[in-house]
Amino acid sequence: MKTLHAMRRWWLELPEILRAPAWRSAFAALVILALLLGFHQVVTQAVRQGELLRMSTATHAQAVWRCNSLSGSRIRERCRAELDNPPPTRQHDAPPPNTASVDLAQFGR
After folding, report:
1. Do residues 95 and 101 lie in contact, with contact meaning Cβ atoms separated by under 8 Å?
2. How would you write the pLDDT of the chain (109 residues) with one tens digit per residue?
């Protein structure tokens, strides 16, 4: 109850221009706009993710088709095994091209 009375007192102490209904409408419109922009971002990212999934599935299906069209059962099996296994990880001693090593970046050389 005390909180309600404190809020009401705070509201009544505001200048008349701030208590006008136009401010409430403008604030509500800004909140609605922010929610719509957030919803748009979520939907856009979902569409992009769905498109990537579709492309990945189509690429994998095409690779399987190519493996199945190879002559020789050993070659086909090896090709399908390569598709199912993740690519091998490579250890790099040097940084990738066009990048500075951590030592150089820290000391400004």
Report:
1. yes
2. 778 889 888 888 888 887 788 888 899 999 999 999 999 999 999 999 999 999 999 999 999 999 999 888 899 899 888 888 877 777 666 666 776 655 555 555 4
Q: If you compute the radius of gyration of the chain from its CA atoms, what whole number of angstroms results? A: 30
Whether 82 and 70 have beta carbons less than 8 Å apart is answered as no
Domain carrying residue 60: 56-82
Rounded to whole angstroms, what are the CA distances from 64 to 4, 73, 86? Answer: 67, 14, 15
Domain assignment present for 63: yes
Task: Classify residue 69: in a domain, yes or no.
Answer: yes
Decide: helix, strand or coil at residue 92.
coil
What's the whole-model pTM score? 0.54
The number of distinct structural domains making up the chain is 1
Q: Is residue 73 part of a domain?
A: yes
The letter for the amino acid at 101 is: S
DSSP state of 91: -
